[in-house]
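Dear colleague,

Thank you for sharing your sequence with our group. We've completed the structure prediction you requested, and as agreed, I am returning the results in plain text so they can be pasted directly into your records. Please verify that the sequence below matches your submission; if there's any discrepancy, let me know and we will rerun it promptly.
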Amino acid sequence: MAEDLPSFALFKEEHVQLGIHLPHIGHKAGPDAIRRAAVQAEELGFADVWVSEHVILPKAAPYPPSPCFYEPILTLTWAAAATQRLRLGTSVLVLPMHHPVPIAKQLATLQCLSGGRVICGIGVGWLEAEFAAMGVPFRQRGRRMDESIALLRALWSDDPVSFQTRSIVAEIVEMRMQPLPSSPIPIWVGGSSEKALARAVRLCDGWHGSRLPPDQAAPIIRRLRRDRPEPGFAISLRTGWDGKDPAELRDRLAAYREAGTDHVLAEPADREIEDWLRTVEKISRAAEK
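Please find the predicted C-alpha cells below.
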C-alpha cells in the first residue's frame, strides 16, 4: 500500500486530504503536461491526482468544451510511472458504459504496477449519445452500475470466479483473472441523486460528490455519516477554481472541512499548461494557510 502523503496545514487537524486533477483534457493535454503535473503534485504534497472520462462526444455538444480526453486508466498509468506515492483516482469512470471485465483487468493491473495507489471513482453517466455510440442501453445504466460493482469485487477477490449476470452479457463460470489487485481497490461513487446516495451507502467504500458548494454538501455528508459511520467510508468533494481569489478558495476548503469531508479534489480551470501549473501552486498555498 502506498504511503500517506503529508497533509496540508489547513487540513492536518481534521485529516482531510487534497487532490488535484491532471491536465489530460483539451489542447493543454499531452504526455509532457501530464507528467509535469503529476511530478509537481507529488512534490507539493498533494495526496492524489485524478482524471475524468468521456470516450466519444457529439460534434455539436455544448459540454464538455473539448472532445479531447486522454483515456483515464492509461493516463493514470503514465502518472504512476512518474511518481512514487501519489494515489491515482478516476473522477469518474462511467462504469455502466463499459463491459466491467476489461475494466477490472486494467484497474487490477494498475494497482499492481503502482504499488496499491488506485481509487476507483465511478458514476452512471449522463450523455445518452455516448452510450449509443458504445452500443450500451442508456436506460439500463443504473442496473448495469450495480451489477458491475458486484462483478468488479468478485473479479478482484475470487480465484476462480463464477458470477451470474442479468444486465451484462457475460458467461463467467469457474474462470481465472490474474493478477489479482495487490491490495483492495476502494470504490467511490459519484452523484447526488437519491439513487446515487443509496448506492454509496449499500455498495461502495466512499462518496465522491461533484461541484456542490459546502452548504449544499453539508446535509448530504451528515446523512452519509449517519448511514455509514465507519471511519473507512470516504467522503470526497470535487471543486473547480479559476485561480482568481485565493482567499475565497481558502475559505471554501475550510468550509468543506467543517462540513465533514475527508477529501477535496481541486480542478484548475486554465486552458494553458503553464497557467494550470501556476494555479496548482496557488491551490497548495491556499491549503497551507
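Summary note from our side: DSSP finds ten helices and eleven strands in the chain.

Kind regards,
the structure core
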